[in-house]
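Schema walk-through. Below, the input block comes first and the output block second. Nothing else is stored per chain. Lengths vary across the set, and this one has 85 residues.
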Amino acid sequence: MPKFNFNVFNLKRYHGVTKILFIIGMILLGLVVVAGLVFLVSWILMMLWNWLMPNLFGLKPISLYQAMGLLIITKILFGVISSGK
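--- output ---
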């Protein structure tokens, strides 16, 4: 069975400043991906809210930033759903 190389980025080939720049680039890429996922989930929540809540309960439509706030509030109140470990 062939061995899998877990060192995908092979940081050994980077030295000094290029290693630091590579790490900073990966951190920035991670932040951009997380921000994109937050906007995507907030947009989905906003679309679902604006589709259902005004018709069912007579509530006002919400904006994207209000949907983000709603996600933050639910995260604070309910936390992460764990697997029971």
